[in-house]
Structures are given as C-alpha cells and as structure tokens.
Amino acid sequence: MRLIGVVSTIILARLLTPQDFGVVAVAMILVGLFEMLNLTGQSAAIVRHDAPTREHYDSAWTVTLLIGIAIAVAILIAAPFTELYFHEPRAIPVMQCLAFRAVLGGLENIGTVDFSRELRFDRFFIYNVLTKILQFVLTVVLAIMLHSYWALVIGILAGQVSRTILSYVMSPFRPRLSFARTREIWGFSIWTFARSVAMYLQTQVDNIAIGGIAGSAMMGRYTVAKDIAASPTQEIMNPMVAALFPVMSKCRQNPVELRQLYLRMLGWSAIVCLSTGVGVAMVAQDLVAVVLGPKWTDATPLVVWMALNAATAAVLSGTPTLLDVKGMPAMGARIQWSRFAVFTAVVFIVAWTTRSVMAVVETRLIVSALFIPSVIFAVQRATGVPARDYWTAMWRPCAAAAAMALAIFALNAVLPFTGAGRMVLDILVGAATYAGAVLALWHLSGRPEGAEADILTLCRRVHVRLMALRLPQTADEKRA
C-alpha cells in the first residue's frame, strides 16, 4: 500500500511542478490542523476494550461524525484567511473543496476497527490497498489531462470517498447515532487525542515556518523531498506499529511478555529505521536525479537531512503504544506535548532568524536526537524498562549503519559514473554491508533473542517453502 504512495509521488513529480505541490501543501497544512481534532482515539479505545458492546461502537461513530462536520465548517470559515500568512490565494478554493473530506471521513464505518481488534490484517490490507489504488490511478490520469494541482485535490477527495464506501462493503456493522458510552470512551481516548494532536502539530511546525519564509515553489520542493526521504522509513514502521497495539493489548496482563514484546519491537525499529534512513541519505544525490528529475535538484540536501531525521524520530515509535496498553496514555501525551513545545520554539526562532530552509531541516534532526534520552528516562520510570535494554537492542543496528555509510562512501569515491547505475550499486553494497554487519555483531554478542533471531527464522521458513516447491512430491504426498 505504501509503495503505491511512493510511486504516485514519483510519477506526479514529473507531471506537475513544485508550485503545484506547494499550493496543495499550503492548503493541507491548515486542513490538517483542523482534521487533527478527529484524532480522538475512539477506535483505539474499542480495540483495547475487553468486551465492547454495540453502544461502544455507535457512540464512537457518532462522536467521530459530529467532529467531522464541525471540522468542515471550521475549514470553510478559515479558508479566506489563508492568504494573510502564506500569501497563496490559490490555496483558498483548494481548502474549501478539501473541507468535505472531514465529513466523509466521519461517515466511515466504525465496524472496520474489528479488522485490528481480531488481528485480521488481511482484511485491513485489502481495505487500505483498494482505496490507495483508486486514488493513485485517478490522480495520475487527471495529472496527465490537466497538468494542474487540481489533480491532487480531486485525487485526495476520491480516495476518501472510496474508503468510506468500502468500509460499509467490507464490514457488516451498520452504525447509528448514540451517546450512551461517550463518557466511558472519552476517559481513555481524550489522552490519545491529546497525544495525537501534539504528534501531528510537531510534523507540521516546520511546514508552517517554511510557508512563512519561502514561496510555494520552495514549499513544493520541501514537501516532495520530505515524502521521498521519509517514505522508506515510515511506510515500513507505520504498519508495524499499527499491528503492535492489538497484539500488545492481548498480553497486557502479563508484564514480562509485554516487556519482551516491546523490546523485540525496539530491535526491529532500530534495524528498519537506521538501514532506511542512513541508506536514503547516502544515495540522495542519485535518488533525486533519477526518481524526480532535473527540476528537483535543489531538493537533494533536503532529502539527506530529512532521511536521517525520519530514522531518528521513528526509532522509538512503539513507545506510545506501550504506554497506552499499560493504561498510561496521559504520560504519552505529556511526552509529545513537551517535544512539541521545545521543537516549536526552536524551529520558529531558527526559521525567522536565519530565513534558511536548510537551517530548519538541520534543527529538526538535532532536536529529535536530543529528545531520545529524555523519552527513554521517562519510560524507564513509568514501566521499569531499563535504559541498558534500549542500548542492547539498538547498538548493533547503529554500528551496522555506520559500516554501511563507510562502504557506500568508499565505493562512490572510486566509481567514475553517477546516476541510476551508481544508485543500484550503492543499494546492493549498502544492503549487503548492513545485513552482514548486523548478523556478525549478533553472533559475536552470543546470538541473543531479538530481531536478528526473528529475521533468521523468517529466512529459514522462506527457504523451506521454496525447497518444498522445487522438490518433486511422491505419490503418497500428493494423495495426502
């Protein structure tokens, strides 16, 4: 599903201009700021509930729908004031059109939450992929026909329409208006909402700051660079985290098992984030030239820093889930709001003092890195997971990432060519170096339980299945 989004961005970057992306990005900043009010965590409250009734589902759907309507009204009222800060009048009609996405989102069938609650990730996959495919096809076709940012706008709305319709096709549940369990659901979801708001605002602070100091063209380059740089990390981590909550909820009464699951997730996060973040940063020059084309060359240094920031920010992405499962969503909210407050103050000071986009990007990475120790300390006090366990889970991927960076740097120093050929060689050499270093360090550490052991187990299972396909079956085996 996420690969479709990446391919869509690559194709659209060649069909549309940075200004087109910039107009939609400006509109989406304010639309997203309002839509975050719907991140109230009703679905998470139902997933976590031991035995939710129909009243729980109906109450969650009713609140979501009413919030969606209120968001749409707020966007329509605020749209004309967009030009005062961003100086982009074309964003006003875009916002007015996108206001209806909030209503459509509020109408989604709450019954689809059972896909996660029952660990039916096959249904979850189909539900999301079909929507993404329709949006991708329609947006690309419109971009070819219109060569305008309206292709992006219509594609966004079409994606939400298809998602809402599909939610009723795939789930037999039919919601109805009810407020019977609103108070109970909000007792948990209000803190999830507070944390979600802080997380979203943190992702938009740099966009808001840059929107005030740069034009729509730079905003477009920044948005696309951010998408390309962060996608490999986020698009692997997001599904993992989505699967983590319902699985952790099943074992929340067993502290030992819950802790082991969290540390296992931490090891996986480190392996994924460091390999993708450092890998994208090392091939950024060829990546931009080959994937986006010459009109996006100025985005190359942005991709480098944003890839590293995406890896740093996502490495502890399983922590809020642990706090939610342990019944401490308030702590997760406080951590995110503290990070948001510090990040906002620093980014706006840097942006309006230097008026440099690169300075903002570098500041993002520095703040994200400096905040990791404080998060580890807070989680240690709340859950009893010691700091040394974090180090045990992450030091091998860190060392392997450094080895990969050195290998790619040395290779590029001797290669006489650039472009697609060099990028492919960098990826192959980098992947081999990273995998070899991780496994070698794991063996030297005594082969502890963790992500590396999981990877080897998965490889063995794949090998067994491939061998079973290749080996001829006997007559008795065929009859069996």
From TrEMBL:
Q: Which domain of life is it from?
A: Bacteria
> Is Cell membrane one of the keywords?
yes
For this UniProt record, the keywords arranged alphabetically read as follows: Cell membrane, Membrane, Transmembrane, Transmembrane helix
Pfam families for the chain: Polysacc_synt_3 (PF13440)
Subcellular location(s): the record lists: Cell membrane
Stretches that traverse the bilayer: 21-40, 60-86, 124-144, 150-171, 261-282, 302-323, 335-353, 365-382, 394-417, 423-442
Q: Which residues form a coiled coil?
A: none
| Topology within the bilayer | Multi-pass membrane protein
Recorded hits in InterPro entries, A to Z, give: Poly_Biosynth_Transport
The record's similarity note reads:
Belongs to the polysaccharide synthase family.
**PANTHER family documented for this protein:** LIPOPOLYSACCHARIDE BIOSYNTHESIS PROTEIN WZXC, PST FAMILY PREDICTED COLANIC ACID TRANSPORTER
**Protein name per UniProt:** Lipopolysaccharide biosynthesis protein
Organism this protein belongs to: Rhizomicrobium electricum
Which classification does the entry list for the species?
Bacteria, Pseudomonadati, Pseudomonadota, Alphaproteobacteria, Micropepsales
